[in-house]
Amino acid sequence: MRSYEDTYQHKGLRRQLVNLLKEKGISDERVLDAINAIPRHFFLDSAFDKIAYEDRAFPIGEGQTISQPYTVAYQTQLLNVKKSDKVLEIGTGSVYQATILAELGAWVFTIERQKKLYELHKKYYFRNKYLNLKFFYGDGFEGLPTFGPFDKIIITAAAPFVPPKLVEQLKPGGIMVLPVDEGNSQRMLRITKTAEGSLIEEAFDQFSFVPMLTGRNG
Ligand code: SAH
Fold first, then answer.
1. Average pLDDT for residues 108-128, to the nearest whole number?
2. pLDDT at 183 over 90
3. What's the CATH number where 121 sits?
4. pTM greater than 0.90 (yes/no)
5. 114 CA distance to ligand 1 middle (Å)
6. What are the pocket residues of ligand 1 if the criterion is a CB atom closer than 6 Å to any ligand atom?
7. In sequence order, what DSSP letters do the residues of 136-156 get, joined into one string?
8. 8 CA from centroid of ligand 1 (Å)
9. Which residues are the active-site ones (predicted)?
């Protein structure tokens, strides 16, 4: 069950969450505005209504989770999304992260490997608002060669390595943000493809994601 009512209480909790994200170091005002604009509780079962604005991951079914707001804000900030950027997201899950990217004005292509989660897009609440968001069922390791190359690529599951086909689908000057496995946690990496096609890799903080798995499921 979902509830699509955005009350003053929800809005107040969302503002508190934005303040917390600022305290934790998120400084990009556009990212903070997007978090403030999108009702996160719309992406969760109504059982989570009272806690949807805690800075935590929550289950969304099929053993998957909606990412923690701090993680969503952190990855989005590193991605430096500009209006009309073509962005590929691996791991649609709840569609929350994809909606933040769409709110920032990007053309968003999001891939999910779990059939049941992919099918949730048919009931996507904002389907008439974010016409710049397209859903795909497939294996993120393959990317979307026919729709690429992309300005930005974001992986929202723990990648065992930097997927080579995704590097190929990144434009010169493009940026990919992904958590890469280091045992029990992952290191957030930002890979920038230079105009000449060489790669610059920067390492950031440790996070904990569900694994990026090969093939489709369902
Ligand atoms: N961005 C999501 C996070 C969901 S968790 C959100 O905002 O809610 C990560 C998601 O990645 C899961 O739904 C999982 O099924 C999916 N996933 C894992 N490996 C994948 C792959 N190879 N291709 C596409 N999706 C994948």
1. 96
2. no
3. 3.40.50.150
4. yes
5. 8
6. 64-67, 90-91, 93-94, 96-97, 111-114, 117, 139-141, 156-157, 210, 212-213
7. EES-TTT--TTT--EEEEEE-
8. 31
9. 67
